[in-house]
Write the structure tokens for this entry.
Amino acid sequence: MAVPSVDAAGIKAHPTGARSLRAHDSALQAARELLAEGGLAAATVDAISARSGVSKATIYKHWPSRTAVAAEAFGRIMADALPMPDTGSAAGDFTAHLRQVSNFYATQPVFAELLAACVTDPSAAPYFRTFFLAERRRNMAMLWQRAVERGEVDGGIDVEVAQDLLVAPLIFRLMTGHRPLVSGEADKIAAAALSGLLRHPACLTANEKRGSAWLPTATSSPRPSPPG
């Protein structure tokens, strides 16, 4: 039996005729409904098939696992729930966006369930990255580019790093529960990420810059303190 092909991102190739596309959309809609009703545990292939009328064999032609179906369906849920803000300023846009994301994570336990499930189901992880994560990062990149064009942020900062600094604290808080996911906390995270942590980040002395070379890396052993 031939192994189904996958693309560079790890997404399984599937039939693309009109009938197949209708089946694909029907299965995704059923998965969305089941996720809303009972979380990831409710979105089994059996339940998706029963709800959508799409056979289990067809579902497995389109996705490698139930977690993969759920990840793609959940990406559509978040896309509908989080429109991109346009407040007129970078600070306003990113603060509003982090408030939206914080509230979404706090009220959508499926997100944490999918994160955990993708660890044990590697075939589903590409679907989470492609259909959930990639769309969110494209939208945040648009906010960043808009801020660069306004001259409000440093265009030399890698947009991927900027996004990680803004959003990663929310995911960390979701997974550990050490701080709440509320608007006030999202505001603090946005302010810290956009303002920086150093009092004068652009005014490092020559000695401070040289000192950074003595920091240990992941592949090196710690060096002794520099002389002097």
